[in-house]
Design brief:
By secondary structure, this protein is mostly beta strands. The chain contains 5 helices and 27 strands.
Amino acid sequence: MIRTLILAALAAGTSVSPVPLVAAPLPQQQDADTSNSPDDADAGTETVLGKEDRYQRMTVPVTIEGKGPFRFMIDTGSQATVITQTLSDKLQLKPVGTATVVGMASAEPVELVQLNGLEFAARVFDNISAPLLEERNVGADGIIGLDSLQDMRVLINFRDYTIAVDQSKSRYSNRGYEIVVRARRKLGRLIITDAMIDGVRTAVIIDTGAQSSVGNIALRDSLRSKNSVAVSAIDIHGNSMAGTQSVARSLKIGAMKLGNVPITFANSPAFDAMGLRDKPVMVLGMASLRLFDRIAIDFAREKVMFDLPSGSESTPA
């Protein structure tokens, strides 16, 4: 039986942002823990220096069976940990089967290889069946996907370009954030189900592997978007995805609000594969996520946490 794996990453594209993104907390914040305990200093947390790839996503150094370091992208929208064909050839990894990998624009069969001794942030992972993809489409040597991130917490600190990973065991690990939002799991991802985009209830997926934010056709039709422009983007297979882009006036997640959010709308097979075709849903990409000082995704506790940048507006944008 051939496995189906979803990699909802949008590597590159033509993007139009006519107005700047704005973030602000909403009045009467809820579910937030404002303790002054610094999250970055939790015992047992390993922090690595991140680096931007050419699409402004975050990559981290990893080693494989002691070799490296190699640059892998942290992708909270990818079901699988991925390695490029170039690196696999270099390490002489053995094939173990095939899988259908669903990207934002296409679904294609790919070869799987056995990956052992993958180490990052002082953790080692073995027995990974990793899809092989082309380096030019990944933008890095590989991808750290959800199969390596379950039961963990990933903190991306945009202030100092670090990524912290821990086992989400400390009772204090989620303190110090301005906005804490509960989410639910679906195919390994954490989905925020009660977000609002211009008054339309929308499911939001935090995707650190996507450059831009992408909404499905159901969201576009519900918003009745106007003043849209034609755009295109390249998915993880290198195939082009055509769509339209418009700017939402507001995106509300819990007690936080983003203003002027560019959204690309497309009929993507990734939404179909996730069972999210008929209800409004959006993948929130790095172009919007980088607006925050810190973002933490706690898979074990099913929470997503945000820190607004210092000096942000205290009233809605």
